[in-house]
Design brief:
With 704 residues, this protein is of the alpha/beta class. It has 11 helices and 45 strands. 14% of the residues lie in helices and 28% in strands. The strands form 9 sheets. Strands 3-4-6-8-9-11-13-15-17-19-20-22-24-41 form a 14-stranded parallel β-sheet. A 10-stranded mixed β-sheet has the order 21-23-25-26-28-29-36-32-38-30, with no helix packed on it.
Length: 704
Amino acid sequence: MTLINRCLLTVSPGSELMMHQLLQDMGKKIVCEESKDPVRRSRVWHDDESYRLLKKGDGSDTIEGLALDMRKVDQGMRSEVSPLKTSVFKNMDKLKLLRLKYVKLTGSYKNFPELRWLCWHGCNLKTIPSGLFMSSLVAIDMSYGHMEKFEAPMVLNSLKILNLKQCGKLVSICKLHLLPKLETLILQGCSSLTHVCKTIGDLESLVLLDLSGCTKPWKALPSKKYVNQHGGDFFLPQSLKSLYLANCNLDNTNHDRVVFHAQSLFNLSLRGNLFQYMPNNIDLKMLRLLNLYSCPNLKSLLCLPSTLEELCIDWCTSLERITFQSGRFSLREFGYKGCFKLSEIQGLFKLVPIAKIDEADLGHMQWIKAYQDHKVDLVGDDITKGRDRRIQMLYEYGIMSTYLQGIKDQSMTTYEYTSSSAFLSFRVPLHQKKDKIKGLSVSCLYRSSGYKDTDWWILLAKVSNTTKGLTWIYNPVVYCKPSVDEDVVWLSYWPIGNVLDVGDEVTIDIFWEKGMMIVSGCGGSLVYTDDDDDDEIKEEENCENTKIKGKEVIGGDLSEFEVTTGGYYLCRRDFFYSETSYRLKLLFGDNVHYTDSLGWRKTRESGLSWVLKSYIDAYPKEIVLGVGFNSESEINKIEKAVSSVEGVEYVSTRKEMKRLIVVGHADPIAVATCVREFENMVDILSVNYGHYSESRSRKRLHNG
């Protein structure tokens, strides 16, 4: 029985109960064996049989479930297009499940059977007749219909699900207090909706609310601030766990007028909105999933809750900084593709152009400012794609590092200890001035071996204090991709002065994936501080220790990265996959206490869960590019070239606005790269996706 449960009935990541096709077929076969005549069966689901049965009026008291999709009925059977009569359901006393799609009914609903589940897609009624409201109803799905107003005439104590998705003519939904047990309310894509009854705040059982694509309720709020008993214009119940407000045109003038006191909020989608900062009246204490896909004006995300597990900020093109309530980075799924201005993710990494860093903040590496306008080709992470190519400084685990590409002059700093191989060893000397050791500078010189697939470099630096039994192996999140016959210098600073004493043996070892690159040397230098600045340095260190307490940095809490006693693997990506355990043993020795292939990184990587991926990938994207457009002939060439990019469906030009709009499933970076063949100044301004079909997206492009 356990095997059957596991194989034939499963729960998807979206919390949907899934039945294996084999089990469905077996159930249908059992029903078909009840009688050769569909009228005598408990369930009728073949569209032709259902249509024939309803057309003839052959209802019976044996039918418990019936499904009919008029789009799938044989054309020859419905040569006469005429509505079906409601009276056919009069004799179906046991009918509990009714699923109609694009079916027109005429007549009275007074004697309609007591349904438990009503699904009527494409319903032509403007309001729901009172006869269809029954105390036994548990779920109503009237998606894609012509309804203009929803109002329950009586208390529906059993109703838990109300789905009015894509009812484009729906203007108001009233008397929600008559649905006291409602758990799910879906109003997605109701573009004409202006009024949602304020008694929605009194629905103590409501756990899911989807208002995606509903732009007018916020405009309909009174211009003067109205304070009701809950303290806001639009109050949402505390029971809410999932809230979808995608593409609602929320900005900083209206989003604060919606009061979110849902202390148990688990899943929040605000994708495609225009605000510059998150609404400050949302209680996020229990939040697990946050979707901010393509919020082009969003500039920062500050103090995100430590409970957050999944975060999508793809194509937030103005986003610069993310911080968390806790310094420890705890996200398990994280998507940040197309965040070209993002420079800091607290607890993960910080990547900033050298040109934007003050010399004082570079410390002993101030000399590198002379190279701030040089270019580097960074690879290895989504954060590098479409980014400023000037030399960057990377901060990870308390380590700061950068790359110098193709620089041949001799003005760079020299290292105290050098080696013409990938290994270096020395002892900490007695410094004459007795200055305090701050840390260790490490360099590595490498070049490409000509390997073709060079976007996934594996380059690791191993620093050990063998005297004290401490080892750190650092695998940076990004690398510099060298051109053919070109050297790259990797420079890094490790703040480990507090564990380096006179006489300690220090080793530096560089590891790389054989066949991908050639390492021709490494170097190391101890970094000291002057005695004159000792008091000031102590004060700075105290402040710094306070700031990094508990954080996953050298000098903080690295317990999750400890793979052997005193040995730490500083990396969040499983580059080696099934070979990870074997590789770590080569790096640290046989005493690696490594039991889970994902244990040290806890699945933390740039990616999205099944829930967010399925929601994002289902719809075509609208890519808006800022382009200069120097001439008409150039515009024609750009449109033609972009049209050939894989996944592009439509291209439209707004010359007066200097905008190029592309619709389809194309990669935005691929589109921008194509345009750069004709224009140097190209910016991806936004990437939006919504609930429009191909024909509607074409109309949207041509109508502006």
